[in-house]
Amino acid sequence: MKTQKPSGKSQICQTVVDLPPSGIRKFFDLVATMEGAISLGVGEPDYVTPWHIREAAIHSIEKGYTMYSSNSGTPELRGAVSAYLAGRYKVNYDPTAEILITTGVSEGLDLVMRAILNPGDEVIMADPAYVSYPACVCLAGGKAVRVPTRVEDGFELRAENIEPYITKKTRAILLGYPANPTGAMIKRDKLVKIAQLAKRRGLLVISDEIYARLVYGVDEVCFASLPAMQETTVLLGGFSKTYAMTGWRLGYACGNKEIIAAMTKIHQYTMLCAPIMAQKAAVEALKNGEISINEMVEDYNRRRLLMVKGFNNIGLNCFEPRGAFYTFPSIKSTGMTSDQFAEKLLKEEKVVVVPGTAFGPSGEGYIRCCYATSMTEIEEALGRIHHFLKKHA
Amino acid sequence: MLKDILKLLEKDARSSHKQIATITGLPEKEVAASIRKAEKDQVILKYKAIVNWDKVEDDHVYALIEVKVSPQRDVGFEAIAERIYRFPQARSVYLLSGTFDLLVIVEGKSMQEAANFVSQKLAPVEGVQSTVTHFMLKKYKEDGEIIGSKEELKREPLQP
């Protein structure tokens, strides 16, 4: 039997057709065929999940925790998340109505956009920003409004730069600090200004705090803990980066009852619940994971310093990132575009980096390099990049 | 600051002065001087590699020996411990609480060699009441390093 698609019409909906493809797709194929490449292109820790957390999950499987959990997540985990946030940031979320356990911040982001956006509503975000931000807004029928950020401002999204972009259609400001790809942080006083602006203009703030615990020499700030902001903030957090649990797909969303109920409604029809063994592991992570976090952060910090200094030494100006595990050096001095630089570097020196433009037009002139890799590899990669720069000088 | 340097060296004794300087923010000369001083003060005792001898065809036998001793007036366990730890065959010597006093780790080329050390050198030491020898069958982990099967990272090389 022959199946025919309706003549001349694509089977794919217009929204998805219009969605730009990932800026790193072509690099995947190049890397796949290459031996001996060093990758600074990853976006996850170079640790395996600490053993005590893995062991808790194994134990839960042995005990027969293989079923669905409640849609919102196990009461035990919601309680543990609530206690963690109260203890660390003095924000109090009711675990029965204001916390939803999601399959990673990725799902939380998608849910919140679908829950709040009417067609054409706008969400303001930094540029460059994590690739999923504009995509999730777009898929939810909204419009991503990108506010360029600059190295001179430490790649911070600032209240005074946001304001001109606010229109009648603006619904929310999406923050993701510490930031992927820049490693930027925003200090408390500047966040307060954004909070005041959001309050004044009646905007929701969505704060992706997945990298909150990976900060170096600065204090992390939970946006919901700013004065009077809890009610109008949706806090997205997770376990992937803090506890090296990327593959477990587990996160949480916290907000007012109305928004969490709306997000839960979508979640119950689409995801049903997060995997229960991952939830069991996460309880162990929250209870006993602090020691591992401190060790990992110390270790990231050493490599951060090595990489930033390394780039500056070989002539690539590198802004000092204070969070996450990325550096975002400028390659403007080479005269190449980010894309050309990344592709040539991969072909000629076998070093994988991500072109800044994968994260938005303001990423032009930069590359993202992840330091969640061994010191030896970082030094070898820096050596190869140095060789590359001399060759193309 | 010395603690930071020591932590780095404890993790990787081959870290260069330059690397340590970058990470700690200290001038390279100061790093070198601190390390020299730590070596002189015997804060740093030695730099060594953790070797998985199973992978090289070389005979190595380890024995853990529980030693019960009679402590001596005024010096307690010190004198007898010293008589034992001066033997080069005793790789490590610890004073423990519990049912015996000293734990001596002995390294030899064969079980016979280790047993000879215990029967001819260690047991006859004055003040040693009794010994119990345990031969080590397999090392799984040493100094925080899992021996033989390091977990490989199974990451994709490129992620947004």
Describe this structure in words.
- The complex is a heterodimer of chains A (about 400) and B (about 160).
- Chain A is globular and about 60 Å long.
- Chain A has helices at about 15-20, 25-30, 50-60, 75-90, 105-115, 130-140, 160, 190-200, 255-270, 275-290, 290-315, 340-350, 375-390, and strands spanning about 40, 100, 120-125, 145-150, 170-175, 205-210, 235-240, 250-255, 325, 350, 355, 365-370.
- Chain A contains 13 helices and twelve strands.
- Chain A has two domains: about 15-50 and about 290-390, Aspartate Aminotransferase, domain 1; about 50-290, Type I PLP-dependent aspartate aminotransferase-like (Major domain) (Aspartate Aminotransferase, domain 2, 3-Layer(aba) Sandwich), CATH 3.40.640.
- In chain A, helix 5 runs parallel beside helix 6 and helix 11 packs parallel to helix 13 (about 375-390).
- In chain A, helix 6 links the parallel strand 3 and strand 4.
- Chain A is α/β, with parallel strands linked by helices.
- In chain B, a hairpin with a 6-residue loop joins strand 2 and strand 3.
- Chain B is built from five helices and six strands, in the order αααβαββαβββ.
- Chain B is of the alpha+beta class.
- Chains A and B meet through helix 2 and helix 11 of A and helix 2 of B.
Keywords, separated by commas or semicolons:
heterodimer; A: 393 residues; alpha/beta; Aspartate Aminotransferase, domain 1; Aspartate Aminotransferase, domain 2; 2 domains; three-stranded antiparallel sheet; 13 helices; B: 160 residues; alpha+beta; Alpha-Beta Plaits; four-stranded antiparallel sheet; two-stranded antiparallel ribbon; 21% strand
Give the number of helices of chain B: 5
Instruction: Note the gap between the termini of chain B.
Output: 36 Å
By CATH's scheme, which homologous superfamily of the largest domain in chain A applies? Answer: Type I PLP-dependent aspartate aminotransferase-like (Major domain)
Order of strands across the main sheet of chain B: 2-3-1-4
Report the major sheet of chain B: 4 strands, antiparallel
Q: Give helix and strand order of chain B, one letter per element, not per position.
A: HHHEHEEHEEE
Q: Please state the second-level CATH architecture of the largest domain in chain B.
A: 2-Layer Sandwich
Query: Roughly what percent helix of chain A?
Result: 40-55%
If you consult CATH, what is the topology of the largest domain in chain B? Alpha-Beta Plaits
Classification by helices and strands of chain A: alpha/beta
State the largest interface. Answer: A-B, 27 and 15 residues
The spatial strand order of the largest sheet of chain A comes to: 2-8-7-6-5-3-4
Distance between the termini of chain A: 61 Å
Uncertain runs of chain B: none
Biggest sheet of chain A, in brief?
7 strands, mixed
Shape of chain A: globular
Number of strands of chain A: 12
